[in-house]
Amino acid sequence: MLTNIREGFGKLFAILVLALIAVTFVFFGVDLGLTTGTVAARVNGDDISLYEFDRALRFREQQLAVNNPGQITNELRNQIRGEVVNSLISDRVALQRSKELGFMVTDDDVAIAIANQEQFRLGNQFSFDIYQSRLIGEGITTQYYESLQSDALYLNSLKNLFIDTSFLLPYEYNLIIGLMTERRRFSYAVFPTDVHYNDTIIPEASLRIYYDANSQNYTTDVALDINLVEISADMFEESMEVTELDIVAYYEANSDRFISNEGRSASHILLPSSSTDLGQELLNRLANGELFEDLAVEYSQDTLSAEQGGGLGFISRGLFPIEFEEALFSLEVGAVSNLVETQFGIHIIKLDLIEEGSVQELDEVRSILLAEIQEGSAGTLFYEKASQLADLLYTNNADLQSIALALKLPIREVTNLTINNDQQVDPLILQNAFLPDLQDGVISPIIELDDNRLAVIQVVNFRDPEPLAFEIVEDQIRQQLAQSEANRLAQIQAEAFLAELQVAFDNQTDIPMLAQESGASWFEPRWVSRDGVLNDTPIELAESSFILEKPSAGSFVANITQLQSGTPVVIILNDVEFGSADNLEPTIRQAYGYQLTELISAIEYESYLQQALSDATVNISDTAIAPVY
User: Fold this and answer.
1) DSSP secondary-structure letter at 507?
2) Other CB atoms closer than 10 Å to residue 551's CB: what's the count?
3) Strand, coil or helix: what is 10?
4) Contact between 461 and 252 (Cβ < 8 Å)
5) Within 10 A of 141 (CB to CB), how many other CB atoms are there?
6) What's the Cα-to-Cα distance from 305 to each of 293, 296, 523, rounded to whole Å?
7) What is the spatial distance between Cα 223 and Cα 301, in angstroms, rounded to a whole number?
8) 152 in Cβ contact with 109 (< 8 Å)
9) For 359, which DSSP code?
10) Helix, strand, or coil here: 536?
11) b/e for 456-473, b at 16 or more Cβ within 10 A?
12) 3-state SS string for 600-614
């Protein structure tokens, strides 16, 4: 299919990327007894392969590794196995419904979608070589990737059906906009903990007692020793020999790139479209000897150029409407055109000067040519080496030494690698090194570090966390307990202040003064809004203000919350202002309308999908959901 693109498919359109649909799915009425060795699940008789399941599971684990480095436990892994199989089942049901509704996806549709994905483009063109090398890096075939894109187009067709038919009633729109743009006015008192921290003394005996009760929290990090083989385009560029004949041939093949277009300096007088008679009058006056510059200043609607006597400066082809350019490039220097009509109005054009195009000689662009030849050749060698690596991994996923020898590449040894890595290891290598699948010594799939670098790794030694001696963590525990006690004392102050607020309000007591006497720092009332206006207010306090009930007129609502540091804060809410769509700029109001319509369509789509799932016959293999302990 993609060979059509390699040979020149034509103008390309939108980018479509396959994503997993996160839909809650309960194994109610589902047969968990499927025993086929290559099938993860069966949906209405349609099989989901273990290959699909394993790829989706690895992708999900990699996502978790980014957000929870070194913390993917077996319990968590079993949980995400269920999430992944649920997601694949939901996708398959949606795919079946899309086809039942008569949506069609052709090979050309798939080719266009893939060709427009930035990851497969070199400049503005689709690159078949990049396409193949990236898929090799991911360990998947072009046929499988194209099937994924076909499924994505079907799923998007179904989703777009809901987007195209969803709508909001005016009162629903106004209600939601009102909530989304609601504003709240509150003051707050911060009760600092540092005064208590500095005065807190923790008995030595308490430190030891706390350590004995919580020693599992004081351990070394998990540590790994890994072997690493990396392929980069740079390693080929450095050893690349480029001859003079290569440079000359490349220059001649790309000579049109080094020729600048002819430039023409022009002036014009712009008149409204309905001013043909005036235009003819000005042409007559020019023919009778009046100056073009004077008439441009007096009559041209293009006020910016009129100030320069109508001067537009140098113009190259492609910058102005075609009618304007055809007239301009047909003139001799000093000549004036007839009336030229474009979408902007009627033009009278004068050619002031011609600047001939120039040619950059070979010596002027030699360094550019050399770099491009080296980069292109290195890219080809990089792709070939990556293909060779993929082939070797297919037949051998345990002996990295033999793979390195076959590729004539060095093995880099990294010892004592921890998740809080302080060595020069790429973050993607770090994430993959701690995936549970690699702890058994298998070689990783190819890891794409960037556009021009690939790597594979093998864990050769795994060290479990070890307890840290009390003496090592003694100061850390002292600080933790002191901070905990300081937070507790500040919380007591905040609770006492909160208890006094109503009486102080009723007695018209100076609230800011009361806060200061209670040991707090006072912050005057300010407005915040749901759409992001904070007025120098910590975001956690703004969020807390929207949880509080709306106060009655002339009253307040208060509560205790915390800053991210754990410092107690008393929020005093005294006013709520419901938003209105009438206060929004038209473009913002329209953008909100699009967002809300998409939200409603997503809700309707999820409801439709839940009903489709409940109607489906689903069987799940034990292999897909079996524990991995």
Assistant:
1) T
2) 17
3) coil
4) no
5) 12
6) 10, 8, 54
7) 73
8) no
9) B
10) coil
11) bbbbeebeeeeeeeeeeb
12) HHHHHHHHHHHHHHH
CA distances from 40 to 26, 88, 445, 447, 600 (A): 17, 10, 21, 25, 33
CA distance 550 to 345: 57
Nearest residue to 207 (alpha-carbon basis) of 502, 471, 510, 600: 471
Confidence at residue 37, expressed as pLDDT on a 0 to 100 scale: 57
Residue type for 347, please?
H
- Compute CA 574 distance to the chain's CA centroid, rounded to the nearest angstrom: 39
Whole-prediction pTM: 0.55
- Token pair of 268 as six digits: 């014009």
CA-CA-CA-CA torsion sign (414, 415, 420, 422) = negative
Q: Concatenate the DSSP letters of all residues of 255-289 into one string.
A: GGGGBPPPEEEEEEEEE-TT-HHHHHHHHHHHHTT
Q: What is the pLDDT of residues 581-611, one digit of tens each?
A: 888 888 888 888 888 888 889 999 999 999 9
CA distance 389 to 136: 9
The number of beta carbons lying within 10 Å of the beta carbon of residue 90 is: 24
292, 286 in Cβ contact below 8 A? yes
Mind listing the pLDDT tens digit for each residue in 258-284? 766 677 889 999 999 889 999 999 999
Which secondary structure element, helix H or strand E, spans residue 4, and what is its range? helix 3-6
Q: In a 3-state reduction of DSSP, which class is residue 455?
A: strand
Tokens 């939601």 — which residue?
176
Do 130 and 122 contact (CB within 8 A), yes or no?
A: yes
Token pair 């009778």 is found at 288
The encoded tokens of residue 125 equal 């063109």
* Tokens 């990089």 -> residue: 382
Tell me the CB-side half-sphere exposure of residue 435, using CA atoms within 13 A. Answer: 25
DSSP helix/strand/coil, 360 = coil
DSSP strands (E only) in 141-251: 183-190, 223-232
Give the number of other Cβ atoms within 10 Å of residue 111's Cβ. Answer: 20
